Structures are given as structure tokens and as C-alpha cells.
Amino acid sequence: MKNIITALNNPELNIELKKEKNINIINKDIIYKEGILEILEEKKEINLIIINYDLPGKIEIEKLIEKIKEKNKKIELIFILEKEDIEKEKKLKKYNINNIYYNNKINKKELINIINKKNKKSTQELEKEIKKLKEIIKEKEIKNNNYNIKKENKIKKQKYKNLQHNKEGKKHKKIKLAKMVLIHEKQEIDRNKVSLTIAENLKNKNNKILIIDFKLGEEDLHKILNKNNALYLINKKIKNKNYYKKNIEKNLYIKINKNITLLTGIKNILKNNSEINNKKIINLIEKNKKIYNYIIIEISENNNLEINKKLIELIKNNIIIFSNKIEDIKNTKQKIKLIKNYKNKKIYLFLKKEKNNKKINEINIKILEEIYKKTKIIKKLNKKIIK
Question: Considering only 23-37, 60-74, 170-184, 318-332, which range has the smallest mean pLDDT?
Fold first, then answer.
């Protein structure tokens, strides 16, 4: 049903129209031209205006039509003239207005019929839209079915290949490599220690877990794990003249418990040459992938960018820790953009919650989900993230 206003300078007719069940008149009759524009300022949902061409007012009729169309291009206009007048009709038709009727030839009943026809037309348009939407949905279903058939065929082919591969007598077992996650830390944020939370979730199934503190110069995980002297002891051994360089890497591993090992002090094995560093990083990751079930790596944005890029390239799963502060949004978006430069990367955002401020975080999460539309914001840390 259309929302209608009348500007006929005829309050009695307005009242009579309001009595009709199928007609939605939403205001008192307007008695001057400028009043139409005033109503349109207040009420944006108007679909149809019935106007007396000779309505009092200072604004010219052409200017009035232009102003109405500026406010709402889709609005329909019906004009009532006192009698046939070719000049007035020309002015109206110039603005593609063909709904022109004459006061001396139309009565209340006919006007009601005209309005009802307009309402009916609106219903037909809606039915067309629904029909079109159904066609789109059907098309999408067909595409999805075709995609699923192709996927099933691909799986069948792969199963057949695997069967053939086994029949050929290749009995050697493939080494199950570690699943890995890269955690992007920001020093200014009071971190929730995402890596330790994930490790705690994983250790329940007797998994071997390696946490690598790759925040060069900002290593802090050893302190949280009550190994305060770890870096001091590592540096002391390296400075010892009787200590061979080949043993350096072995002493970077610190056993936390039967499931979890920490690797820290990595800057001791890196050189200034980025090419050598990249090779060392690759070797370090590849070697540990064969030993551990899971590898959790923390990096800092203050690291050398080339080192961070190499780690992003090697690791599929990424968790970015961010705050709900405005100044952090741009920084987080840049990190997302950097990661997306590499193919097949998963990105999760983990929001650092403000203490005693649950309500604000609930409001902010909705805004943040709109800002980071295509990136998943996680509220709980669990093993699914790394699987």
C-alpha cells in the first residue's frame, strides 16, 4: 500500500479519503505549495502526492515539481486541474507527468479508483521482483549442484590415484608435518598471550608443541613461563670462548613441561645478510615441522620486515592481535593487506578486551566486524584455529 499525501486545498476530501480502508493518507490536507516540501522534509516514505494545480503559494509549479523530484525521484504525482487547459498540461508533460485529471470531470469515487489502481500496480511490481529473486536463487542452486558434482568427481579421481599409488608397492609412510600458526603481536597492547592459551588447549592430547618467540629484541615469553634467566644463560654460554658455534642453536630450546618447548634468543643465529637469514629461518621451521605436532610462532611488528615476510610466506594460519582503539585500525588493516599478498592464507583477528568494560566491547565488536568485513574476528582461542 502506498503512502499518500494530498495538497488539494480541500480538507473535506482528505478526510473522506482517509475513511477508505485501502488508502493510506498520512497527513492533513496541505493548503499551500510550500507545505508539500515541508512535509517531504519530515517524512521520507511518501510514494504518491495528489496536487491541485492552482494551489496557493509563491513557488512556480515547475520549480515545485523539480524540488519534489530532487527529494525523491521515484515519487508519483497526480495533478488536478479545475478544467482543461492546454498550456498547463504542456508544463506538466514536460516533466513526464501524465496523471492529469479535471475537477469538473472527476468525483471522489473516481479518484479513489485511480488511487487503488496505483496501489495494485505497486503490488504487481513487488510480485515481479519476487519472481526475479526466485529465478536468481534457482540459478545459484544449479551452479552449486554442478560445483558439488565436479568436487565429488575430483575426490573420486584422487582416491583412485591413491589406490593405484599403494598398489605399486610404495609402502613408505609420509612424515606428518606440524601444523603451524603465526601470531602478530603489537608491543603497545597489553597482550593476552594467545600463544600460551592455544598451547594449553593443545597439550591435553599429549601433543608435542613448540612455541617460538620470534619477537627479536622483545622476547618475553620466557619470563611469563617462569624462566627469567633463560636469555641470560644463553648469552653467557655463547660468549664462552670454549663453546663451539655449532652448539648455539641447541641451547635456544627450553623445556617447559612434557608437552611444551620454548625456542627463544633466535637473533643469536641470525646474520645481517637477509638472504642467509631467510635460509636459516626456512631450515629452522622445516626441521621442527618433522619433530613437533604443532608450532606456534609470535612475531613483532618491530622485527625486520623481510624476516616477517618470510614467516608469513611459510605459514598458512595467522592471528593478528589488535585493540578497539581508532589508531590501531589502520595498523591492523595494513597487516591484513600484507598477509593477503600471499596466496591461501587464513587470517583471524583476536580483540584484546578492556577490563571491566564488557558493554563497550560488545558495541565495538559490531563496528569492527563491519570494518574488517572479510576477516574473521575470534572471541575465544581454541585448537580449531591451528587445525
Answer: 170-184
Grid cell 571491566 in the structure block, residue: 356
10 neighbors 50 (Cβ within 8 angstroms): no
**pTM (two decimals):** 0.52
By DSSP bridging, strand 253-255 and strand 260-263 are antiparallel
Cα–Cα distance, 188 to 328 (Å, whole number): 10
More confident residue, 187 or 360: 187
Q: What is the pLDDT of residues 164-188, one digit of tens each?
A: 666 554 444 455 788 899 888 765 5
Q: Where are the beta strands (DSSP E) in the chain?
A: 3-7, 24-25, 48-52, 76-81, 100-102, 179-185, 209-214, 253-255, 260-263, 294-300, 317-322, 346-351, 376-378
Residue 22 pLDDT greater than 80, yes or no: no
Q: Three-class SS string for 134-173?
A: HHHHHHHHHHHHHHHHHHHHHHHHHHHHHHHHHHCCCCCC
Q: How is 6-31 classified by DSSP, letter by letter?
A: EESS-HHHHHHHHT-TT-EE-SPPP-
Asked if residue 333 has pLDDT above 80, the reply is: yes
CA geometry: angle at 204 spanning 203 and 210, to 5°? 5
Neighbours of 189 (CB within 10 A): 13
283: helix, strand or coil: helix
Backbone angles phi, psi at 92, to 5 degrees: -70, -45
Under 8 Å between Cβ of 310 and 225: no
CB 311 within 8 A of CB 214: yes
CA–CA dist 103, 86 (Å, integer): 15
Q: Distance between CA atoms of 149 and 143, rounded to whole angstroms?
A: 10
Three-state SS for 102-141 is: ECCCCCHHHHHHHHHHHHHHHHHHHHHHHHHHHHHHHHHH
Residue 272 CB-density burial (10 A; 0-12 exposed, 13-18 middle, 19+ buried):
exposed
Phi, psi (rounded to 5 degrees) for 383: -70, -15
- Report how far Cα 195 is from the mean position of its chain's Cα atoms: 25
How many angstroms separate the CA atoms of 198 and 319, rounded? 11
Q: Are 365 and 351 in contact (CB under 8 A)?
A: yes
